[in-house]
Design a protein that fits this description.
The complex is a heterodimer of chains A (293) and B (247).
Chain A (H helix, E strand, L loop, with lengths): L8 H12 L15 E5 L5 E6 L2 E12 L10 E7 L15 H15 L10 E3 L3 E13 L4 H15 L1 E2 L2 E4 L2 E4 L8 E2 L7 E8 L5 E4 L3 H6 L2 E7 L5 E5 L8 H33 L5 H4 L6
Parallel strand pairs in A: 4-6
Antiparallel strand pairs in A: 1-2, 2-3, 3-6, 5-6, 7-10, 8-9, 11-12, 11-13, 13-14
Chain B lengths: L6 E4 L7 E7 L2 E11 L12 E7 L7 H17 L9 E10 L20 H14 L8 E11 L2 E6 L3 H6 L2 E8 L4 E8 L3 H15 L18 H17 L3
Parallel strand pairs in B: 4-5
Antiparallel strand pairs in B: 1-2, 2-3, 3-5, 6-7, 6-8, 8-9
Helix pairs in contact in B: 1-2
Classes of the chains: A alpha+beta (293), B alpha+beta (247).
Chain lengths: 293, 247
């Protein structure tokens, strides 16, 4: 398989000189995201995030399985990421690159370990039947900042998803098809999102957000901060690279909070638009058999 | 219900050599083609290009179902790509299913060994559009159709582009693909059927995929069925016109 083309020395010198002068190649500010678009599919649990030329699609599916024997009260929640040759010919099928491993690891830490999804609510019969929620992440086009785009897609898809309604009568468990009962949303606790910072310069003194593929290839180190809109940090990952000043990390955290607030607002707004589009004539509330808690 | 009208978008993914999104009859597939690129030493063919097809489902990891589709697609595409022009190279076709129709009356299971034929025409059409977008030389274009034979009270009816529900109640499923020169390229059937039924299905598919080259569009008896052959042509004409337009 061909390797990803590396930027030439000229490109590198030009890019770094431009950064020193305070310019990015596409004319954005250092702390500016590219054009972000979030779309939901016709089916529940499909989110398509376009960030500049990066495009990521997440799809959520649910099925009933047997829980792990050591966790009889918890549902199963998995996030699968696979980079296909569609994103770049350098990615091979069935041979995960380092980037892919880091991506799935980070999503796992951000969404799963921060308890964004209440896995106990996925339990149907303790030790016998639980919901298994699975998120498949498809990278369609890779032009940098996969991390932030993927995290947004996964979170958006999970919040958009509806699982089939169930009921328990004595010992019998009934799972209703979408034709019988309107599906119900997942029990969602908070909305963590990732913001990735890339550092440039000999001591990592320049910081960029939402880097393109070229910018990503030239970084000296990077740091991903996951937090929700209330400013609760779920994880900070800085995997190797040039050491960065503590003060600039604190600055990054405050920029991240501001960005996450913007992204959360966008997400809420898009979800509201989508539910309005689906709820023609205001009949959805009557279809639902779910009780307000 | 998703519309029966086919829709396509070409060359919208930036890192692949060619790409296309195609939706038809409730399915949406994103396809990307890279090629001719370097091939791994062990797969290399001395006199022709290797065609590698990867089909990825919307949910879950690919299994035997996807491998089966891949092998069908690979043998079909090898017939239309001019593989002898590119010895010792690889033409890689990646097809990502993004939407497949859901049956409202059944709770879908991920791992079930479901039927895989209904998606084949959409995959073929997407692969074709992506190949054209990547400017890979082809001998012919290809048009495919899926038909279901539903039996009610002894009489069997043929449904073109059946819905998930119709597939469930059907007796047999047939997929046909024809080249632009009206030659049969692919024929896959499953279920129970007689030779007479197959002949009828074949005739219907031929009418569907190889419409008579009339300039007037009066003869559409079936009404709503899409003419995919002309669709491919007009999509590419629009694309070429917009690419060549001098600003």
């Amino acid at each position: 398989m061909p390797r990803e083309a590396e930027p030439s020395l000229n490109e590198k010198a030009f890019f770094l000189q431009a950064l020193q002068d305070g310019h990015r190649l596409d004319g954005r500010k250092f702390e500016q995201f590219r054009q972000l678009d979030l779309q939901f599919g016709d089916q529940y649990g499909v989110a398509d995030v376009t960030l500049g030329k990066t495009r990521v699609l997440a799809k959520v599916s649910a099925e009933v399985t047997v829980p792990y024997p050591d966790r009889p009260f918890d549902g199963i929640f998995t996030i699968t990421t696979e980079l296909s040759p569609m994103a770049s010919p350098a990615f091979e099928v069935n041979r995960p690159t380092e980037q892919e491993v880091l991506l799935s690891r980070l999503l796992e830490k951000t969404v799963r370990r921060s308890n964004a999804l209440d896995t106990e609510s996925l339990c149907l019969i303790a030790g016998q039947k639980v919901w298994s929620i699975r998120v498949d992440l498809h990278v369609l086009s890779h032009d940098g900042n996969l991390m932030d785009a993927s995290c947004l897609a996964v979170v958006a898809a999970l919040r958009h998803f509806r699982k089939p309604d169930t009921s328990m009568e004595g010992e019998t468990l009934t799972i209703y098809t979408p034709a019988e009962r309107e599906p119900v949303p997942l029990s969602w606790l908070h909305t963590p999102l990732c913001i990735t910072f890339s550092f440039y310069g000999d001591e990592g003194e320049m910081t960029l957000v939402d880097t393109t593929l070229l910018e990503e290839q030239l970084k000296v180190s990077s740091c991903t901060i996951s937090l929700n809109k209330h400013g609760e940090i779920c994880q900070v990952a800085k995997l190797g690279g040039t050491p960065v000043d503590a003060v600039s990390l604190v600055q990054c955290a405050s920029i991240a909070l501001q960005k996450v607030k913007e992204l959360s607002t966008l997400l809420d707004q898009k979800l509201a638009e989508d539910s309005k589009r689906r709820n023609k004539g205001g009949l959805l509330a009557e279809l639902s058999a779910e009780n307000a808690r | 219900m998703a519309s029966h009208d086919p829709e396509a978008r070409l060359s919208h993914l930036q890192s692949a050599d060619g790409s296309a999104t195609f939706s038809h009859a409730g399915y949406t597939v994103v396809g990307a083609v890279n090629g001719p690129i370097e091939v791994q030493r062990r797969d290399e063919l001395p006199e022709e290009a290797v065609v590698d097809v990867i089909v990825r489902p919307a949910a879950g990891v690919g299994g035997t179902r996807e491998r089966h589709l891949e092998s069908l697609l690979q043998s079909t595409l090898r017939q239309i790509i001019l593989i002898n022009n590119f010895p010792r190279t690889l033409i890689q076709v990646t097809l990502q299913v993004t939407v497949s129709p859901e049956n409202e009356y059944v709770n879908a299971k991920l791992s079930q060994a479901a039927t895989n034929l209904p998606i084949l025409p959409t995959l073929i059409q997407t692969a074709l559009l992506a190949l054209l977008s990547a400017a890979i030389p082809l001998t012919a274009t290809v048009t495919a159709a899926v038909l279901a034979i539903v039996a009610d009270d002894g009489a069997s009816t043929i449904i073109v582009d059946p819905t998930a529900r119709e597939i469930q109640v059907s007796r047999s499923l047939h997929v046909f693909a024809f080249t632009s020169r009206d030659e049969l390229l692919l024929n896959e059937s499953e279920g129970e059927f007689t030779m007479q039924e197959w002949d009828n299905a074949f005739a219907t598919a031929q009418r569907q995929c190889c419409p008579a080259p009339t300039s007037d569009d009066v003869d559409m008896e079936g009404g709503s069925q899409a003419d995919l052959k002309n669709f491919t042509r007009s999509t590419l004409e629009t694309k070429t016109a917009s690419d060549l337009y001098w600003k």
